[in-house]
Design a protein that fits this description.
The complex is a heterodimer. Chain A is of the alpha+beta class. Chain A is built from 4 helices and 9 strands. Chain A has one domain: Aldehyde Oxidoreductase, domain 3 (Alpha-Beta Complex), CATH 3.90.1170. In chain A, the strands form 2 sheets. In chain A, strands 3, 4, 6, 8 and 9 form a 5-stranded antiparallel beta sheet that branches. In chain A, strands 1-5-7-2 form a 4-stranded mixed beta sheet, sandwiched between helices. In chain A, a hairpin with a 2-residue loop joins strand 3 and strand 4. In chain A, helix 2 runs antiparallel to helix 3. The longest helix of chain A is centred in the C-terminal third of the chain and has 18 residues. The two termini of chain A are about 25 Å apart. Chain B starts with a strand and ends in a 6-residue tail after the last strand. Chain B has a 5-stranded mixed beta sheet with strand order 2-1-5-3-4. Chain B is globular, with a radius of gyration of 12 Å. The chains are: A alpha+beta, B alpha+beta.
Protein backbone atom coordinates (compact mmCIF):
# COMPACT_ATOMS: atom_id res chain seq x y z
CA UNK A 1 0.00 0.00 0.00
CA UNK A 2 1.15 3.51 -0.70
CA UNK A 3 -0.24 6.69 0.89
CA UNK A 4 1.52 9.91 0.03
CA UNK A 5 0.78 13.59 0.58
CA UNK A 6 2.71 15.63 -1.97
CA UNK A 7 3.58 19.30 -1.69
CA UNK A 8 4.76 19.82 -5.26
CA UNK A 9 3.61 19.10 -8.81
CA UNK A 10 3.93 15.40 -9.64
CA UNK A 11 3.50 13.01 -12.56
CA UNK A 12 0.82 10.52 -11.44
CA UNK A 13 1.39 8.16 -14.39
CA UNK A 14 5.12 7.87 -13.75
CA UNK A 15 4.37 7.31 -10.06
CA UNK A 16 2.09 4.42 -11.01
CA UNK A 17 4.66 2.85 -13.32
CA UNK A 18 7.33 3.14 -10.63
CA UNK A 19 5.09 1.69 -7.90
CA UNK A 20 3.93 -1.27 -9.99
CA UNK A 21 7.48 -2.09 -11.01
CA UNK A 22 9.35 -1.44 -7.77
CA UNK A 23 6.81 -2.17 -5.01
CA UNK A 24 4.39 -4.59 -6.63
CA UNK A 25 7.27 -6.21 -8.55
CA UNK A 26 4.84 -6.66 -11.46
CA UNK A 27 2.91 -9.19 -9.31
CA UNK A 28 1.71 -11.87 -11.77
CA UNK A 29 -1.58 -12.33 -9.83
CA UNK A 30 -2.72 -8.91 -11.06
CA UNK A 31 -5.38 -9.23 -13.74
CA UNK A 32 -6.96 -5.79 -13.33
CA UNK A 33 -5.66 -2.30 -12.62
CA UNK A 34 -8.12 0.52 -11.98
CA UNK A 35 -7.14 4.19 -11.77
CA UNK A 36 -8.95 7.41 -10.89
CA UNK A 37 -7.18 10.71 -11.50
CA UNK A 38 -8.62 14.01 -10.26
CA UNK A 39 -7.27 17.19 -11.87
CA UNK A 40 -7.91 20.86 -11.20
CA UNK A 41 -10.51 22.70 -13.32
CA UNK A 42 -10.26 26.37 -14.25
CA UNK A 43 -13.89 27.05 -13.28
CA UNK A 44 -16.26 26.38 -10.38
CA UNK A 45 -19.63 27.82 -9.42
CA UNK A 46 -19.73 30.17 -12.41
CA UNK A 47 -16.35 31.69 -11.58
CA UNK A 48 -12.98 31.45 -13.28
CA UNK A 49 -10.54 29.75 -10.95
CA UNK A 50 -6.90 30.69 -11.41
CA UNK A 51 -5.36 28.76 -8.54
CA UNK A 52 -6.11 26.65 -5.51
CA UNK A 53 -4.57 26.06 -2.11
CA UNK A 54 -5.04 22.62 -0.59
CA UNK A 55 -4.66 22.26 3.16
CA UNK A 56 -4.55 19.03 5.19
CA UNK A 57 -4.17 17.87 8.79
CA UNK A 58 -0.74 16.21 8.98
CA UNK A 59 -1.01 12.91 10.80
CA UNK A 60 -4.79 12.62 10.74
CA UNK A 61 -5.07 12.80 6.95
CA UNK A 62 -2.54 10.00 6.42
CA UNK A 63 -4.20 7.90 9.14
CA UNK A 64 -7.62 8.18 7.50
CA UNK A 65 -6.26 7.45 4.02
CA UNK A 66 -4.53 4.33 5.36
CA UNK A 67 -7.73 3.18 7.04
CA UNK A 68 -9.77 3.84 3.87
CA UNK A 69 -7.38 1.80 1.68
CA UNK A 70 -7.07 -0.99 4.26
CA UNK A 71 -10.87 -1.23 4.44
CA UNK A 72 -11.06 -1.48 0.64
CA UNK A 73 -8.35 -4.17 0.57
CA UNK A 74 -10.39 -6.26 3.02
CA UNK A 75 -13.84 -5.53 1.57
CA UNK A 76 -12.97 -6.11 -2.09
CA UNK A 77 -10.08 -8.56 -1.60
CA UNK A 78 -7.86 -6.47 -3.83
CA UNK A 79 -4.14 -7.13 -4.04
CA UNK A 80 -3.06 -3.57 -3.29
CA UNK A 81 -4.07 0.10 -3.35
CA UNK A 82 -2.41 3.49 -3.72
CA UNK A 83 -3.49 7.05 -2.92
CA UNK A 84 -1.39 10.11 -3.70
CA UNK A 85 -2.88 13.54 -2.94
CA UNK A 86 -1.55 17.04 -3.50
CA UNK A 87 -1.41 19.82 -0.93
CA UNK A 88 -0.03 23.34 -1.30
CA UNK A 89 -0.66 25.62 -4.24
CA UNK A 90 -2.10 24.17 -7.47
CA UNK A 91 -2.82 25.57 -10.92
CA UNK A 92 -5.51 24.48 -13.38
CA UNK A 93 -4.74 21.11 -15.07
CA UNK A 94 -2.52 20.03 -12.14
CA UNK A 95 -3.19 16.51 -10.83
CA UNK A 96 -4.90 16.66 -7.39
CA UNK A 97 -5.34 13.01 -6.50
CA UNK A 98 -4.64 9.60 -7.93
CA UNK A 99 -6.28 6.44 -6.61
CA UNK A 100 -5.21 3.08 -8.00
CA UNK A 101 -6.11 -0.47 -7.08
CA UNK A 102 -4.93 -3.83 -8.35
CA UNK A 103 -6.88 -7.08 -8.20
CA UNK A 104 -7.30 -10.43 -9.89
CA UNK A 105 -10.59 -9.44 -11.58
CA UNK A 106 -11.99 -6.14 -12.83
CA UNK A 107 -15.11 -5.81 -10.63
CA UNK A 108 -13.06 -5.71 -7.44
CA UNK A 109 -10.66 -3.09 -8.80
CA UNK A 110 -13.44 -0.88 -10.25
CA UNK A 111 -15.47 -1.01 -7.02
CA UNK A 112 -12.50 -0.53 -4.71
CA UNK A 113 -11.23 2.51 -6.60
CA UNK A 114 -14.65 4.17 -6.50
CA UNK A 115 -15.16 3.31 -2.84
CA UNK A 116 -11.76 4.70 -1.84
CA UNK A 117 -12.43 7.93 -3.75
CA UNK A 118 -15.89 8.47 -2.23
CA UNK A 119 -14.61 7.75 1.29
CA UNK A 120 -11.69 10.13 0.73
CA UNK A 121 -14.06 12.91 -0.27
CA UNK A 122 -16.30 12.53 2.77
CA UNK A 123 -13.75 11.61 5.47
CA UNK A 124 -10.16 12.61 4.69
CA UNK A 125 -9.28 16.02 6.16
CA UNK A 126 -8.42 18.13 3.12
CA UNK A 127 -9.72 21.63 2.36
CA UNK A 128 -9.65 23.60 -0.88
CA UNK A 129 -9.34 27.36 -1.12
CA UNK A 130 -9.88 28.78 -4.59
CA UNK A 131 -8.47 31.91 -6.09
CA UNK A 132 -11.15 33.32 -8.38
CA UNK A 133 -11.83 36.50 -10.32
CA UNK A 134 -13.93 37.54 -7.29
CA UNK A 135 -11.21 36.81 -4.69
CA UNK A 136 -10.36 33.86 -2.43
CA UNK A 137 -13.03 31.48 -1.13
CA UNK A 138 -13.12 28.16 0.75
CA UNK A 139 -14.83 25.45 -1.28
CA UNK A 140 -18.06 24.17 0.30
CA UNK A 141 -18.88 20.45 0.01
CA UNK A 142 -22.43 21.17 -1.17
CA UNK A 143 -21.04 23.19 -4.09
CA UNK A 144 -19.39 20.15 -5.53
CA UNK A 145 -21.66 18.34 -8.03
CA UNK A 146 -19.62 15.13 -7.68
CA UNK A 147 -20.15 14.93 -3.92
CA UNK A 148 -22.47 12.52 -2.25
CA UNK A 149 -25.10 14.24 -0.05
CA UNK A 150 -23.16 15.41 2.99
CA UNK A 151 -23.94 14.01 6.38
CA UNK A 152 -20.33 13.58 7.30
CA UNK A 153 -20.71 13.87 11.01
CA UNK A 154 -23.00 10.88 11.25
CA UNK A 155 -21.03 8.76 8.81
CA UNK A 156 -17.71 9.13 10.51
CA UNK A 157 -18.54 9.02 14.17
CA UNK B 1 -5.52 19.95 32.32
CA UNK B 2 -3.44 20.78 29.25
CA UNK B 3 -5.15 20.73 25.86
CA UNK B 4 -3.54 21.38 22.49
CA UNK B 5 -6.01 22.97 20.06
CA UNK B 6 -5.66 23.07 16.28
CA UNK B 7 -7.70 24.91 13.65
CA UNK B 8 -7.89 24.31 9.92
CA UNK B 9 -9.18 26.02 6.78
CA UNK B 10 -11.95 28.60 7.32
CA UNK B 11 -11.93 27.95 11.07
CA UNK B 12 -8.23 28.86 11.14
CA UNK B 13 -9.05 32.14 9.35
CA UNK B 14 -11.83 32.81 11.85
CA UNK B 15 -9.67 32.12 14.92
CA UNK B 16 -6.72 33.99 13.40
CA UNK B 17 -4.30 31.29 14.56
CA UNK B 18 -3.49 27.71 13.59
CA UNK B 19 -2.96 26.33 17.10
CA UNK B 20 -2.94 27.18 20.78
CA UNK B 21 -2.21 25.48 24.09
CA UNK B 22 -4.82 25.80 26.81
CA UNK B 23 -4.93 25.04 30.48
CA UNK B 24 -8.49 24.25 31.50
CA UNK B 25 -9.62 23.71 35.05
CA UNK B 26 -12.62 21.47 34.59
CA UNK B 27 -13.51 18.60 32.33
CA UNK B 28 -15.29 19.92 29.27
CA UNK B 29 -16.77 18.33 26.21
CA UNK B 30 -15.16 19.23 22.88
CA UNK B 31 -18.24 21.28 21.98
CA UNK B 32 -18.34 23.09 25.31
CA UNK B 33 -14.73 24.14 24.71
CA UNK B 34 -15.63 25.28 21.18
CA UNK B 35 -18.44 27.46 22.56
CA UNK B 36 -16.05 29.00 25.10
CA UNK B 37 -13.38 29.64 22.46
CA UNK B 38 -15.88 31.33 20.15
CA UNK B 39 -17.99 33.19 22.71
CA UNK B 40 -17.10 36.57 21.20
CA UNK B 41 -17.37 35.67 17.53
CA UNK B 42 -20.00 34.46 15.15
CA UNK B 43 -18.85 30.83 14.98
CA UNK B 44 -20.16 28.38 12.38
CA UNK B 45 -22.27 25.47 13.63
CA UNK B 46 -21.35 22.98 10.91
CA UNK B 47 -17.90 22.16 12.22
CA UNK B 48 -16.20 18.79 12.53
CA UNK B 49 -14.19 17.88 15.61
CA UNK B 50 -11.30 15.44 16.02
CA UNK B 51 -9.46 14.36 19.14
CA UNK B 52 -6.03 12.79 18.75
CA UNK B 53 -6.56 12.43 14.98
CA UNK B 54 -9.97 10.73 15.24
CA UNK B 55 -13.43 12.19 14.54
CA UNK B 56 -15.51 12.47 17.69
CA UNK B 57 -19.03 13.44 18.66
CA UNK B 58 -19.72 16.80 20.29
CA UNK B 59 -20.28 15.35 23.76
CA UNK B 60 -16.84 13.72 23.91
CA UNK B 61 -15.01 14.75 27.09
CA UNK B 62 -11.49 16.11 26.88
CA UNK B 63 -8.64 14.49 28.79
CA UNK B 64 -5.28 15.86 29.89
CA UNK B 65 -2.83 15.99 26.99
CA UNK B 66 -5.47 15.68 24.25
CA UNK B 67 -5.06 17.34 20.88
CA UNK B 68 -8.44 18.64 19.71
CA UNK B 69 -8.99 20.00 16.21
CA UNK B 70 -11.88 22.11 14.88
CA UNK B 71 -12.49 22.41 11.15
CA UNK B 72 -15.19 22.74 8.47
CA UNK B 73 -16.55 19.84 6.36
CA UNK B 74 -13.80 18.37 4.22
CA UNK B 75 -13.40 19.05 0.48
CA UNK B 76 -10.54 16.91 -0.77
CA UNK B 77 -10.22 14.89 -3.96
Amino acid sequence: MKIEIINEKFDPWQSLVDYKKNDLQNDPRIGASSVFLGTMRDFNEDSDVTGMELQHYPGMTEKYLEDIVNNAIKKYKIIDGLVMHRVGFLEPTDPIVIVATWSEHRDNAFNATRDIMESLKSEAPFWKKESTDKGFRWVQPSNNPDSEPQDTQNEIQ
Amino acid sequence: MKIHVKYFASVRDLMETDAEDLNIATSLSVYELWKQLTVKINAPENILIAVNHKYVGRETKLNDGDEVAYFPPVTGG
